[in-house]
Amino acid sequence: MHLRTAARRRSRPAGSWPRALPAAARHAAAATPWATLLAGCVTGTALLVLLACVARHAHQPLSQNVVRLTFLPAVAALAFVPRDPLRPLTQAAPAPGWLTSAGQTLLAAPVLAATCWAQLLLMDHTAAPLAPRPAVYPLLAQLTGWCAVAVAAAACCDRSRYADLGGAVAAPVSLGVIALAWYGPRIDRLLLAPPATAHAAAIAWYAIAAAALLLTAAAMRDRWHRYPRPLRRPG
């Protein structure tokens, strides 16, 4: 099997896979679970709209913790995105096998960015006009880290024997990691502002995001993720 795989890779002409990018982009767009992603983003935003209306009538501004909670459905939905149901077929294509999962993640990024922007606007709408605003960049770093952890969990799940379950395993794992970072007895001193400073929390979350992206790249590059042990020839 490995000899046939190596021969197939050598038989591909150099520079052939960039010509397959338009077809791969269309395949990534068609394979992206848009309904799940949009449902997660809309659910959290709709909940925040309801809370913002209540806060406006009560003259109580929303805090950043509310945005953190309402962004969790979008993070859970992101865990279902990097999944190629036709991976055995895409591995035989001229394009690399990881291109579909990476394209799905890139297509989901603008949707998540728009969701975050809308939720931050709703939070700012409930504050008084001249009231001081807390720093937003630690919150953006934290949400970025959450999304990177969800993508890493989905990529690792796609590499394992539980690839068919996809986000059903990756989403609880991601939420568990987020809960550990949020309620951990000593971790919260480094990742939450306060007690950590805004600058230190932002650096810590961007470091976590970078480590999660490296783990994602390592998980996506394995073409034969369903066969962890090499097959030996008899005799």
Provide structural commentary.
- This protein is an all-alpha fold.
- It has one domain.
- It contains ten helices and no strands.
- Helix 2 crosses helix 6, helix 4 runs antiparallel to helix 6 and helix 4 packs antiparallel against helix 8.
- The longest helix has 27 residues.
- The protein is globular and about 55 Å long.
- The N terminus is likely disordered.
How many helices? The count is: 10
Number of domain modules: 1
| Morphology call | globular
Q: Could you describe the largest sheet, including whether it forms a barrel?
A: none
Taking all Cα atoms into account, the compactness measure Rg is 21 Å
H/E series, N to C?
A: HHHHHHHHHH
Q: What's the rounded overall pLDDT mean?
A: 81
> End-to-end span in angstroms?
16 Å
Number of strands: 0
Strand content: under 5%
Which features characterize this protein?
disordered N terminus, 10 helices, 68% helix
